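Render this sequence as a predicted structure.
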Amino acid sequence: MAIHARHLQSLTIKKGTTHQALMAQLGSLCNTGPLTLPENITMLPADGQDLCRISPIQENDNARLGFFVSNSVNTGAMTNSQWVEYWKTMLRGHRSVLLTEEQTSHTYSFGSSVRTVSEVTGGIVPDSIRVYPTGALRIMMQVTPITATTRVLAGNREIARKRYVEGTTNSIYTELSQPPFSQYQYFVNRRLTPSGSRLVFWDQDRFEGRVHANGTGGVDAPLFYATTSTGGPRFQGKYTSTANLEWSTSTPAKAPESQMFQGGAAFGVDRITLPGNANNQRLAAAGLATNQQPRPACLNAADPITMCLRQTFTTATSLPDGVYASRPGESTFAGGIYVKGNVADLKVTRSDNLQTIAITQGTTTTMFRQVNATKWEVYRGSTLVSTLNNSFNGMLFVDGQVGTANPKGTGGLRGDGTSAGDLAGQTQLTVAASSDIFIKDNLTYADSPSSPEAKNVLGVYSEAGNIKVNGPENQDLIVDATLMAAAPGKGFGTVDFQTSRGSPQPKVRIMGGIIEEQSQGVGTTSRLVPVYRTERVCVRENANGSCREYRNYQVLDRYEEQAGAGYSRDFRWDARFNNRGFAPPFFPTQQNYEISSSEGLGKALVRPGGFKAEASP
């Protein structure tokens, strides 16, 4: 069974495999045609929905095993037919005979031989295929105990039997998904300053989560810098890069790789492509998805996204600027919240652990106030205009800009400005926009991410702009979120990052991750500046030794520390993102599919049992 665990854990979807090809493979496993996804997949319950049940694998079911055979690596020790038989044997559960062995020990004078016959049975039973609101698919399976039975026979008479049982019945799964970018604490496409200079990872950089860097060596890939041989950055999660390790030409020292890459490193890996648009997020706000079945007719239009949004939120021939959440005449969320036009202020607050979202366009504020898990009240100003009696799917999309660069501390995405958490304990929210997003004040979780029960999560994604912070003057800024700016030349930074925000230099603390195409300026480091005093010095004397001419000179008196401009960085990892199933709702995903296994799969397949003696018949 340890071998089974290794092969299940090593399943890999080949690069370029299409969604249609995967659905055909999974349909064969269920002994049906290609699987189709349900309508309104984004509104499915969190624990998913069965797409099909998997009937028991039979002896002649080779064709049903295509998913496992095609996506696993046969090291060459088996022929193709043997490889198919291996998977078929593994997936037949308790009915599967994994091993049979017979040995003759001795032939006695009365003519009967003593034989030892051993048989091992057990395996895995595929049960169903489930789909989840994120689009992830899971092959649900049951592990059956491994039973090894040895019988001692004298002729045809059994004289002894012993059985060894290993493991118990357990549930496991294999998940297929396009992993969200939120699995990275830091992802950068080009490690450059806004002016195009190359940036370094150095002594003060500490990353607890995964880090990935695209880029070309010698051009825009990261450089490394260490002040001493014990310095350099520290990566506690895995570090991957398309380029090789490259040291800055000005580095005083080079640190050992084992010291820097404590979570492992891989260089020369494939480039990971950032998304080119946010259409999936637009559609999610309308409760739609490109891969749902039957396919919405609006997706076949010449301008499918505009058509789908218009048909969802209005009966008119065009969709004017405004805030939308339901279909005309309906009292339920269509999916999430869609905003057409720029937003002057977007305030996220909570009361009694229920969420409030206030969206200001011009002089009009639309407020969504949560009443309970499945009921929200919608206000325009102070007037109640509707009540929505179902769940909000967590997607808030703005087709425009959120906030403005100035003033500091207001007019943008923000919380309530206090130390209390802004995202309620059950809130899972993604705020996406087509243009710049300005974060103007603290935006924090009510439940700490360190709590195993914490479910609140926030993603912030700009399709074509930057995500920039500009909090109150002379004040630290705390943002609990994963931030993503994917367009060429865009990333995360500070408004006027070379301008002082006060002394001591305030910090921006990000609890989550940053995914950016090109680095933006966050701040400059503090430095020691010389302070001079004026000294009057005699430059010409009289014959009697008295001074006849003086000059003033600037003489170094001391050094003073000058606070850096912008913010200093305090980036921390939200370890919940180590679990690929945990992400802000509808957060952008990678193009290629990946396979992951349920936590503890190896233990589920290999669990010590004990011997059990049985009486002979």
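Summary. The longest strand covers residues 113-131. The two ends are 30 Å apart (CA to CA).
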